[in-house]
Design brief:
It contains ten helices and no strands. It is globular. It has a single domain (about 5-10, about 30-255), classed as Up-down Bundle (Heme Oxygenase, Chain A), CATH 1.20.910.10. It is mainly alpha-helical.
Length: about 260
């Protein structure tokens, strides 16, 4: 599915405002104390700094191969889609497992919608790979260890506010580090996935923020969440570096894939 690159980039830039002006507006949540709002700003600052370093190329840059070659025959494109099947599926499982921890019915409903969204994202990836004659299970059953580490850690945190702090960081970083880069470098190759995903990311970040504001109401809870934010950001970056390494590995030299 072709993407109108100009429109897609404009939409992604609009969602990027979640980290700046829009986040400022969103932080004016009725009932949230000044301390709680400042805590969200602190998390946003950590996320912004990490996103800036990622976008600057500090941790390497994605390589999607020769655009004159069809995307389904490029190792780099196929591998990126395969690598994304695991996180899109796992985040669905993880969010679903936390719904019983949300007594607030509005938040429970919004978390349920996120599960539906993530299933849709995973399904699109699987359908694209199957259509291209590739095995969508390959890197789901054998994910990059660094990506698996992220989800093992996120699944291990105890409280719902800690879990959604991790989600807040990872969902917020995924947009500039993956969706925006794919849209900039090769919108035609990744358009179908981007179009199915990008519109949902803002609501997922907003849900995570609202859970944090609702339940991280003590200094102790906020300190636990702060530690989670720091740890999961480091793990996210290691996962990103692993993907960069994979896309630039010796295996890529065999591209294009020949049917």
């Amino acid at each position: 599915m072709a993407v109108a690159t100009k429109e897609m980039n404009a939409f992604i830039q609009e969602l990027e405002m979640l980290r700046s002006g829009l986040e400022e507006k969103m932080n004016q949540t009725p009932g949230a104390s000044l301390v709680e709002r400042q805590f969200i700003k602190d998390l946003q600052g950590l996320k912004h700094d990490a996103a800036h370093d990622i976008r600057s190329g500090k941790y390497g840059t994605f390589n999607f191969g020769d655009r004159s070659i069809p995307p389904e025959k490029r190792f780099q494109v196929v591998t990126m889609l395969k690598a994304l099947v695991y996180p899109e599926t796992k985040v669905c499982d993880h969010v679903a497992s936390r719904i019983p921890q949300l007594p607030d019915l509005d938040l429970k409903a919004r978390a349920s919608q996120q599960v539906i969204d993530e299933v849709k994202h995973a399904r699109v990836l699987r359908e694209m790979l199957t259509r291209w004659g590739e095995d969508p299970q390959e890197m789901y059953l054998e994910p990059l260890p660094e990506i698996e580490d992220v989800f093992n850690y996120v699944g291990s945190v105890e409280t719902v506010e800690e879990f959604f702090t991790a989600n807040f960081m990872c969902e917020g970083l995924f947009l500039p580090s993956h969706l925006q880069v794919m849209s900039e470098l090769d919108p035609d190759a990744f358009g179908e996935y981007i179009e199915s995903t990008v519109a949902d990311e803002g609501s997922h970040v907003a849900l995570a923020r609202d859970v944090i504001l609702r339940y991280a109401t003590t200094p102790e809870a906020r300190e636990r969440c702060r530690r989670v934010a720091t740890e999961v950001t480091e793990l996210f970056i290691r996962g990103l570096q692993a993907k960069v390494k994979k896309l630039n590995s010796e295996d890529a030299e065999s591209a294009p894939l020949i049917a």
